[in-house]
């Protein structure tokens, strides 16, 4: 029989054990080994059955066992020590508290998904895991972050396979009362709520659940409340589900409702209000509109409020392709804003202009969330150096006239939260070398360029560690494979072969990620005979563990999964290659440490960063990857291999896959497997062990989320906070009026005449020429602009590369027609073809970049033809 109503009955803990509840509700346990060990000792069998979830564990421990523990003095001493450690962690000064006073009082960090722990399944892939690692690293560093997201009642789907290998999706219902969450309440005990106005006089209401991620509160909005109609209750039903309007409502709730949730949280708890708002991808972009509306309600006009909001906003883009960006029909967006819907005091036309693709090649009827995010943020970044370059190219239409390298999008390369992803055995090995506290600091705060202590670890210890982790993975794979085959309908009697799957002494390759086509799950299958030869080699075999989910609506991705599964079902190779369904954090934490090689073969440059290889590297796993994302930036032959790419403009996609698959097979046959299996005089693979050592010592410090968050604080959050403080209402009005005046006057800004002291087009290195320029500024003055000479080597088409920019200075008084003369030096500091040009840019002390307005004036075509000066 099926229950008609469900309750969550929480255990009543004896007074001596009350601190267990506090420990269970703070998700620091997910990366703090001592806390997990304590919970495991409560009831080891139930701990395993709960999937390592303290809330579920405590809900199932019999009262007799709780009474026994309440009288166990040894257990109570451990409990007091762990609880005291958490209190010190929560209240003590950390890295952030030792920094200068100018740092932000608080930062609000918005993301559509957060991967904190498998016990809180609110993530689908890399974006969510990155967001979770960002929060954890911020907590370790003491950064006053507030996380904001949505609480999905079905989370992301669980994946199983049919008998013929087709992906099946299941959406288990999540009860917030059974998750490590507490409901944010008003002083009278009623649930705190936010509400959005919908067309037709309806409302979308949401409660606010709070997860405590160490020191960082994470606010999750839940629309499944009784006051909502059925349609509105389903807005937060599942991650990345539904049609366009469903997604739009999710993103309005995340952005607009999220700001309201932050305000409510700060009012109820006394937490400082955020000075900086960081939107992790475009999904939360509407947060800027809500903040504009707040300022307009306080008396600012829209343009001034826009400047004030931009000053304190950071936008991070994660996609290297336009297809990865959420875009909505403009009529749909227009219907949800304005007098009869949300933000009624803001003109709908102003809202639409923020997201319209008004650049060449754009679609004027689509509202682009990333474009809005960039227009509402004064600071923006990609997530690796290569991705920063790709992003500047992709969004260059928003800054017409500027070279891509001057587009104001910087990059902060992602990192991973080492305490979450480093196996306990790896940590203990490091702690034996340098002590527990120093090892913890190295993994959380970071700051050093290299971990030199790794050099002192004996080869035998490193090899024994790697073999032990591989053995653990073999056990895990067999258990998961057996469960998967049972779900596919196999009888237990058919599954004896699983006991021989994988070998703890065989080179093990891991490949696990989402399954969009560009990640090329099946590249390894391009030449099946060569792959079989690798898997079954008599002296140097390899074994491969694969995992990944295709989006529920992506039948192409599901076909790739099925193709791979059918290959792994082949009795000839199924002991050497496996596909594990339902890839998630719990599986990943076993997979990364247990592999010797982490394989990544996306189509370059479509991987924005790709952090799975970073997690593998922190466990001594070597990367074998296309030079994309972070690997393009940090690859060295000392600690991995680069798969050559065939990314020429004219390369046929199928031919490209053939070329790159062949390169992958060559690397495995000729370089990777010989290195793993060859033995030195000690009987160990000393050259392989040296690569593991270099991976840990040289790559380890780079890939930390602590390094990433410190970069955000120093390069983006602090400048944004300073800009926010400078942008009081008067300054915001002045800047808005100045921008309006500059835009109106810009058609009258011209470069009229350029001359140099050079008499011929040949000069010696080190020569400094005098430059004299006459410009027309129209209704503007020298305080409104920068006049610059841009010089450097030129190519065959006279395009300047690796440019040097030098400001010119006005001399004398203006002529009556608004024309000014500027002068300055032109240094010939490079040999070979050398050229220069002159340009005029808007200039104001409150601009973060001279490209901010997307305005530039340069010489006319006629003037360029007349100048004809090229140094050789």
UniProtKB/TrEMBL annotation:
- Entry cofactors: pyridoxal 5'-phosphate
Domain annotation DUF3417: ranges: 13-120
Q: Which UniProt keywords apply?
A: Allosteric enzyme, Carbohydrate metabolism, Glycosyltransferase, Pyridoxal phosphate, Transferase
Identify the EC number(s). Answer: 2.4.1.1
One Pfam family in the UniProt entry: Phosphorylase
> Reaction catalysed by this chain?
[(1->4)-alpha-D-glucosyl](n) + phosphate = [(1->4)-alpha-D-glucosyl](n-1) + alpha-D-glucose 1-phosphate
Membrane spanning residue stretches: none
InterPro entries (alphabetical) = Agluc_phsphrylas, Glyco_trans_35, Glycogen/Maltodextrin_Phosph, Glycogen_phosphorylase_DUF3417, Pyridoxal_P_attach_site
List the PANTHER family. Answer: GLYCOGEN PHOSPHORYLASE (PTHR42655)
Instruction: State what this protein does.
Output: Phosphorylase is an important allosteric enzyme in carbohydrate metabolism. Enzymes from different sources differ in their regulatory mechanisms and in their natural substrates. However, all known phosphorylases share catalytic and structural properties.
What does the similarity note say?
Belongs to the glycogen phosphorylase family.
What is the name listed in the Swiss-Prot or TrEMBL entry for this protein?
Answer: glycogen phosphorylase
Q: Which organism is it from?
A: Streptomyces djakartensis
The organism that produces this protein has a lineage beginning with: Bacteria, Bacillati, Actinomycetota, Actinomycetes, Kitasatosporales
């Amino acid at each position: 029989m099926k229950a008609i109503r469900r309750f969550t009955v929480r255990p009543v803990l004896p007074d001596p054990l009350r601190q267990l509840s506090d420990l269970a509700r703070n998700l620091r346990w997910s990366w703090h080994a001592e806390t997990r060990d304590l919970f495991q000792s409560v009831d080891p069998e139930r701990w395993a059955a709960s999937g390592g979830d303290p809330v579920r564990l405590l809900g199932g421990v019999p009262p007799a066992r709780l009474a026994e523990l309440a009288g166990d003095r040894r257990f109570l001493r451990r409990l007091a020590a762990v609880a005291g450690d958490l209190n010190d962690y929560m209240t003590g000064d950390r890295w952030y508290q030792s920094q200068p006073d100018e740092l932000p009082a608080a930062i609000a960090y918005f993301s559509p998904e957060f991967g904190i722990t498998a016990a809180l399944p609110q993530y689908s892939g890399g974006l969510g895991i990155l967001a979770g690692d960002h929060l954890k690293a911020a907590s370790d560093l003491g950064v006053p972050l507030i996380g904001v997201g949505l609480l999905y009642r079905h989370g992301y789907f669980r994946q199983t396979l049919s008998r013929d290998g087709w992906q099946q999706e299941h959406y288990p219902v999540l009860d917030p009362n059974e998750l490590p969450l507490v409901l944010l309440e008003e002083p009278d005990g009623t649930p705190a709520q936010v509400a959005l106005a919908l067309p037709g006089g309806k409302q979308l209401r949401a409660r606010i659940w709070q997860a405590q991620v160490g020191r960082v509160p994470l606010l999750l909005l839940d629309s499944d409340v009784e006051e909502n109609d059925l349609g509105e209750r389903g807005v937060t039903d599942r991650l990345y589900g539904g049609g366009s309007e469903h997604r739009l409502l999710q993103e309005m709730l995340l952005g607009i409702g999220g700001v309201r949730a932050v305000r409510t949280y700060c009012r109820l708890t006394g937490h400082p209000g955020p000075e900086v708002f960081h939107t992790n991808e475009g999904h939360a972009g509407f947060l800027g509109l809500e903040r504009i509306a707040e300022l307009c309600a306080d008396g600012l006009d829209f343009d001034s409020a826009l400047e004030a909001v931009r000053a304190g906003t950071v936008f991070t883009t994660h996609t290297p392709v336009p297809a990865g960006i959420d875009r909505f029909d403009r009529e749909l967006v227009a219907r949800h804003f304005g007098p009869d819907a949300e933000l009624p005091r803001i003109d709908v036309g102003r809202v639409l202009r923020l997201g319209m693709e008004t650049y060449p090649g754009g679609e004027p009827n689509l509202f682009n969330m990333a474009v809005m995010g960039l227009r509402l943020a004064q600071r923006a970044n990609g997530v690796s150096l290569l991705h920063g370059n790709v992003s500047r190219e992709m969004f260059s239409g928003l800054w017409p006239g500027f070279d891509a390298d001057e587009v104001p999008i910087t990059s902060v390369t992602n990192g991973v939260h080492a305490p979450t992803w480093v196996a306990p055995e790896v940590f203990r090995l490091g702690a034996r070398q340098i002590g527990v506290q120093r090892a913890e600091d190295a993994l959380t705060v970071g700051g050093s360029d290299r971990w030199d202590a790794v050099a002192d670890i004996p080869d035998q210890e490193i090899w024994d560690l790697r073999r032990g982790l591989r053995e653990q993975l073999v056990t895990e794979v067999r258990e998961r494979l057996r469960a998967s085959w049972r779900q596919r309908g196999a009888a237990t009697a058919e599954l004896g072969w699983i006991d021989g799957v994988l070998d703890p002494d065989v080179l093990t390759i891991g490949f696990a990620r989402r399954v969009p086509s560009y990640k090329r799950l099946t590249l390894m299958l391009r030449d099946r005979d060569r792959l079989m030869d690798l898997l079954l080699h008599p002296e140097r075999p390899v074994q491969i563990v694969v995992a990944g989910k295709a989006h529920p609506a992506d039948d192409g991705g599901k076909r790739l999964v099925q193709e791979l599964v059918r290959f792994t079902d082949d009795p000839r190779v199924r002991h050497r290659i496996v596909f594990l369904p339902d890839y998630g954090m719990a599986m990943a934490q076993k997979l990364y440490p247990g592999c010797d090689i982490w394989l990544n073969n996306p189509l370059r440059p479509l991987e924005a960063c790709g952090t799975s290889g970073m997690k593998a590297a922190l466990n001594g796993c070597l990367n074998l990857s296309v030079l994309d994302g972070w690997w393009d930036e940090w690859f060295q032959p000392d600690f991995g291999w680069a798969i050559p790419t065939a990314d020429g403009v004219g390369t046929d996609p199928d031919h490209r896959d053939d070329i790159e698959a062949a390169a992958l097979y060559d690397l495995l046959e000729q370089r990777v497997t010989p290195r793993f299996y060859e033995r030195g005089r000690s009987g160990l693979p000393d050259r392989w062990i040296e690569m593991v050592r270099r991976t840990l010592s040289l790559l380890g410090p780079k890939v930390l989320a602590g390094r990433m968050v410190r970069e955000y604080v120093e390069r983006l959050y602090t400048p944004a906070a300073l800009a926010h403080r400078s942008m009081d209402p008067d300054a915001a009005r002045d800047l808005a009026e100045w921008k309006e005046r500059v835009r109106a006057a810009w058609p009258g800004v011209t470069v009229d005449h350029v001359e140099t002291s050079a008499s011929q087009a040949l000069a010696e290195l080190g020569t400094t020429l005098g430059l004299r320029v006459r410009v027309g500024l129209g209704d503007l003055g020298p305080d409104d602009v920068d006049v610059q000479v841009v010089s450097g080597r030129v190519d065959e088409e006279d395009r300047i590369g690796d440019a040097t920019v030098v400001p010119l200075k006005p001399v004398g008084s203006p002529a009556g027609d608004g024309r000014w003369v500027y002068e300055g030096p032109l240094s010939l500091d490079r040999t070979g073809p050398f050229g220069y040009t002159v340009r005029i840019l808007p200039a104001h002390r409150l601009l973060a970049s001279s490209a901010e307005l997307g305005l530039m004036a340069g010489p006319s075509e006629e003037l360029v033809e007349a100048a004809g000066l090229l140094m050789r």
